[in-house]
Amino acid sequence: MELKTLTIIVVVLSFALYIGIAIWSKAKSTGDFYIAGKGVNPVANGMATAADWMSAASFISMAGIIAFAGYDASVYLMGWTGGYVLLALLLAPYLRKFGKFTVPQFIGDRYYSKTARLVAVICLIIISFTYVAGQMRGVGIVFSRFLEVEIVTGLIIGMGIVFFYAVLGGMKGITYTQVAQYCVLIFAYMVPAIFISIQATGNPIPQIAFGSEMTGEGMYLLTKLDNVVQSLGFTAYTEGSKSTIDVFFITAALMVGTAGLPHVIVRFFTVPKVSDARKSAFWALFFITILYTTAPAVGALGRMNLIETIQPGVIGSVDGNMEYSKKPDWFTTWEKTGLLAFDDKNGDGRIQYYNDNNTEFKATAESYGWQGNELKVDRDIMVLANPEIAQLPNWVIALIAAGGIAAALSTAAGLLLVISAAISHDLVKGMIAPHISEKKELMVGRVAAAVAIIIAGYLGANPPGFVAQVVALAFGLAASSLFPAILMGIFSKRANKAGAIAGMIVGIVFTLGYIIYFKTLNVELNNAEHWWFGISPEGIGTLGMILNFIVAFVVSKATAPPPIEIQELVESIRVPKAI
Question: Which domains, and CATH codes, for the chain?
Answer without folding.
Answer: 3-303+387-573 (1.20.1730.10), 305-382 (no CATH)
